[in-house]
Amino acid sequence: MSKTPLNETISSSDLNKLTIITQVGCGLSMFFLGIVLFMHFLLRKSKASNSTRILIHLVTAMFLLNLSFLVNNYVADMKHAMGCKIMAAVMHYFMLATFTWFAAQAFHLCLQLYMEGKIVIRRYILKLCITSWVLPSVVVIVLLIVRKYGEQVISTSDTQQNVAMCWITDSDTHLAVNIGYYVLVFLFTFTTFIIVLSWLLCRRRTASGNAQDSRSGKSIITIMGLCCMLGITWGFAFFAYGVLRIPSYYIFTVLNSFQGFFLFIYYYNTSHSGEVAGGKNSNTTSSSSSTTTLKSNLDIFDNPYMNMPKKK
Fold first, then answer.
1. Does 1 reside within a domain?
2. What local confidence, expressed as pLDDT, does residue 305 receive?
3. Distance, CA of 224 to CA of 228 (rounded, Å)
4. Quick one: which H or E segment has residue 254?
5. What CATH number is attached to the domain comprising 92?
6. pLDDT tens string 164-213
């Protein structure tokens, strides 16, 4: 999605192009995210793993974020003050929830690596859900109470083509709550991405040449899926200053338009691999099952711990 900083002016031509890219991108993203939800709730035949459940929560939050963004302009054009405040609060909530699920995904991946795929935390998914869905609501309620939501005008070089949307009206609040929060999420998720990418490269070095060549395409899809799943692509918003402002808007908008597609591919690969791995595990010993648990949860990757000596 495209997001112009508060109190900044953009050319009407760039704004029109970004608006079209954003609307088309959100529509495509919603389409693929909708397919993921359809496949998960109506076509899934086996019990979902924890990794899949967390991914579905992220997909749900992102789907609702895209939906609220597309509806936002129409609500703003109605010029209804209370309706605009509610719309701003709803979109802000799903944006913060999406950020939080990015962090939850990163936390889950780190925990999987650290515990070698065997997470024994009691009511693990419930605790993640409470944190990721409830925490953003607290922030939104506070901002509603202090009246920080309302109509925000995006200024252009042609004042007659200014665009109104429902959003946070105070720039300091926007910087503190949104940018500040995402900086923390980005640092955590980017670190996780580097760790997992290093793990993938380690696995590929130990694989045979033929196997490596046959899976190189899938590895690229996996990396892009991880970027979207961990919210790395949102990091281009950090470059939206000075001469890099307009180019970063385009890169940010285009990359985030593909989030739904890559998450769809990632979900399909991981759910398929999870079912295959699950079928294999049912016919193996407990020791071999423990070494493939991480593979069934992180799905596409092979377990780099398989050839390592076991802990005493």
1. no
2. 32
3. 6
4. helix 245-257
5. 1.20.1070.10
6. 899 999 989 988 999 899 999 999 999 988 888 888 778 777 765 544 44
Question: Which domain, by its residues, includes 255?
Answer: 9-298
Asked whether the predicted pLDDT for residue 150 surpasses 50, the reply is yes
Cα separations (Å) of 144 from 66, 89, 95? 21, 7, 16
Q: pLDDT of 225-244, one tens digit each? A: 778 778 888 887 766 666 67
Residue 247, pLDDT score = 84
Mean pLDDT taken over the chain: 79
Q: Report the domain count for the chain.
A: 1
Give whole-number Cα distances, 57 to 67, 99, 100, 118, in Å: 15, 12, 11, 21
Position 267 in a domain = yes
In-domain check, residue 191:
yes
At CA 180, angle to CA 174 and CA 183, rounded to 5? 135
Length of the chain equals 312
Would you say residue 3 lies in a domain?
no
Looking at residue 173, its amino acid is T
HSE on the CB side for 280, CA within 13 Å? 15
Spell out the SS3 assignment of 269-309: HHHHHHHHHHHHHCCCCHHHHHHHHHHHHHCCCCCCCCCCC
Contact residues for 77 (Cβ-Cβ < 8 A; gap 6+): 164
Cβ pair 168, 88 in contact under 8 A: yes
